[in-house]
Write a structure and sequence with these properties.
Blueprint (H helix, E strand, L loop, with lengths): L3 H21 L12 H8 L3 H13 L3 E4 L3 E4 L14 H7 L4 E12 L2 H7 L6 E11 L2 E11 L16 H8 L4 E11 L1 H7 L5 E12 L2 E11 L15
Antiparallel strand pairs: 1-2, 3-4, 4-5, 5-8, 6-7, 7-8
Helix pairs in contact: 1-3, 2-3
């Protein structure tokens, strides 16, 4: 017998896929105002809460814009000066002609506290897997990876063999993501971070943060900390048309 939770999840995915198709195909062009949530709920014979969750996910994916008192509209494409992609850390190390190694430092299943919930975009007390791992180039730390995985979305991650290799590649194979967010900023390595990277306290580091979502919900939050002199962000682009 199909549970009510499974039915709601299936309805959510069906509505999300249908609205995404209409937007991506151009059936609903940029600037098009979507039907109001109450009308979509009636059309799909679901609760307004289910529709609201779908609209929230479309907003996070950048497909729609929600305007107070006006409704939801298909977003206009946004121009960017460069497209950033976080490459595989192992590939980064091997590109330097150095031997690569990986070491899992921490693996713990727990309930999300307030900070975890904010980083992963889940409610507090959601079951999550917290991982810390070190990527090495030769004998030296190259990058510290700290990751949270939503076990409500990816329950099989709780028993995955992450001591054998990084979680990132495993997640790509297991959970196709539908939206991602990157942030890059500088920070000073202190405490345990400095110790794990084997650098002096308050060493300047580059921090690259990524969050991903699938149709079922938030998947993972991950932060990569690199000692500043060991990593550079390079983007290639061509002049914009005049």
């Amino acid at each position: 017998m199909t549970s009510k939770t499974t039915q709601r999840s299936t309805l959510h995915q069906t509505i999300l896929a249908d609205l995404e198709r209409k937007i991506v195909s151009g059936e609903w062009p940029p600037g098009y105002r979507l039907p109001f949530e109450v009308d979509l709920a009636k059309s799909y014979d679901v609760s307004r809460m289910t529709v609201n969750k779908v609209m929230t996910q479309l907003t996070k994916a950048g497909l729609i814009e929600r305007r107070k008192k006006s409704g939801s509209f298909v977003a206009h494409p946004r121009g960017q000066s460069a497209i950033l992609e976080i490459t595989d850390v192992e590939a980064e190390v091997r590109a330097l002609n150095l031997p690569y190694a990986y070491r899992l430092l921490v693996s713990a299943v727990r309930k999300a506290d307030r900070q975890d919930a904010a980083l992963l975009d889940v409610p507090e007390r959601t079951h999550i897997l917290a991982l810390s791992a070190l990527h090495l180039a030769g004998d030296e730390p190259f990058c510290l990876e700290e990751r949270l995985i939503n076990l409500e979305t990816v329950p099989e991650a709780a028993n995955a063999p992450f001591e054998d290799g990084p979680a990132g590649a495993w997640l790509v194979q297991q959970v196709p993501w539908s939206a991602a967010e990157h942030k890059i900023f500088a920070l000073s390595a202190t405490g345990e971070t400095a110790k794990r990277l084997q650098v002096p306290n308050r060493t300047a580091c580059l921090f690259i943060q990524r969050r991903t979502w699938s149709e079922a919900g938030p998947v993972t939050f991950v932060g990569f900390t690199y000692p500043g002199e060991k990593h550079a962000i390079i983007a290639s682009f061509t002049p914009a048309a005049v």
